[in-house]
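To illustrate the input format used throughout this study, we show a single complete record. The first block contains the structure-token representation of the backbone; no residue identities are included at this stage. The design step must infer an amino acid for every position from geometry alone.
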């Protein structure tokens, strides 16, 4: 099996779909964007990319779409077919198994594209490439993308206890020095829940995507950032989170994966620093973050963060490399 095969196979397991469906922030945002805008879906042709269990396709059909083409590459599509039939939508929803880049649709254009393509750190798994491919090939002029806007943010956190548990743990494991693993562990971003009280700075947008106009190249990005510290504390890590918005609907709808927002299955992405920063209220952390798909496995992300900090008690210029996989 190739890395792509393993990726699609992972979505054949029920557990991941259960987790996504139980994520009410995610699922209700899509439901409201679709079902509160029936005037936009009435008699329209819809394409659902990566339909999974078919939940978004059924929202679209229930909102009045005349036809929904639901594309899915994993074997979960066999259960989706039974679910769609059990709910009486077999005449409106046509399931198509395969990769979007390989399938053929029975129509030349669609009016609306819906997809839940976001991964950890927004871009992990590179499914956005597939959505943009479908947009360029099938979306009719003036067509809708749901969602159509995404912003990725960065902030600084104090996280001494958890860093000690996850990273410094390797210094002494039952009396043995396993710090060689520590050097590797710190290069792997941690996907976990961050409490709002841990945040010690403002947030800074590092990537802004408009799905109606952005390109695949926009996902390979470099962004300078400037964080202002809100209190005297330590910065052990940077945290990334994202927001998504449905702005083409009558009343715009958005959701956030911020540490200050309700829990989502995306959680947040934590990048631990080799050496923590001693920061004071009002001091600025300047830096640059770059992100690009890994050359061997494009679904992994190579991320580099450079820090230039000059504070009252310390200065630091350092660059760390990470791999999100």
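Output of the design step:
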């Amino acid at each position: 099996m190739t890395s792509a095969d393993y990726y699609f196979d992972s979505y054949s397991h029920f557990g991941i779909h259960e987790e996504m469906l139980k994520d009410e922030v995610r699922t209700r945002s899509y439901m409201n964007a679709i079902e509160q805008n029936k005037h936009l879906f009435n008699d329209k042709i819809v394409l659902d990319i990566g339909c999974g269990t078919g939940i978004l396709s059924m929202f679209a059909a229930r909102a009045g779409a005349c036809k929904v083409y639901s594309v899915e590459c994993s074997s979960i599509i066999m259960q989706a077919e039974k679910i769609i039939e059990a709910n009486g939508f077999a005449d409106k929803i046509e399931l198509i198994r395969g990769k979007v880049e390989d399938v053929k649709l029975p129509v030349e254009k669609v009016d609306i594209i819906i997809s839940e393509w976001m991964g950890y750190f927004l871009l992990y798994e590179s499914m956005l490439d597939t959505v943009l491919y479908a947009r360029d090939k099938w979306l009719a002029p003036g067509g809708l993308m749901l969602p159509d806007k995404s912003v990725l943010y960065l902030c600084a956190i104090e996280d001494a206890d958890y860093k000690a548990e996850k990273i410094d743990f390797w210094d002494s494991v039952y009396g043995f020095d396993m710090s060689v693993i520590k050097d590797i562990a710190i290069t792997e971003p941690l996907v976990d829940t961050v409490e709002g009280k841990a945040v010690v700075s403002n947030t800074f947008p590092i990537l802004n995507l408009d799905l109606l106009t952005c390109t695949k190249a926009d996902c390979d990005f470099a962004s300078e950032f400037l964080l202002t510290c809100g209190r005297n504390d330590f910065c052990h890590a940077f945290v990334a989170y994202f927001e998504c918005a449905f702005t083409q609907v009558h009343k715009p709808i958005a959701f956030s994966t911020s540490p200050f927002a309700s829990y989502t299955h995306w959680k947040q992405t934590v990048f631990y620093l080799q050496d923590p920063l001693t920061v004071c209220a009002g001091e600025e952390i300047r830096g640059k973050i770059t992100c690009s798909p890994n050359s061997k496995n494009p679904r992994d992300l190579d991320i580099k963060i450079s820090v230039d900090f000059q504070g009252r008690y310390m200065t630091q210029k350092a660059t760390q490399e990470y791999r999100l996989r």
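Structural context for interpreting the output: The chain has a mean pLDDT of 95. The longest helix spans residues 24-35.
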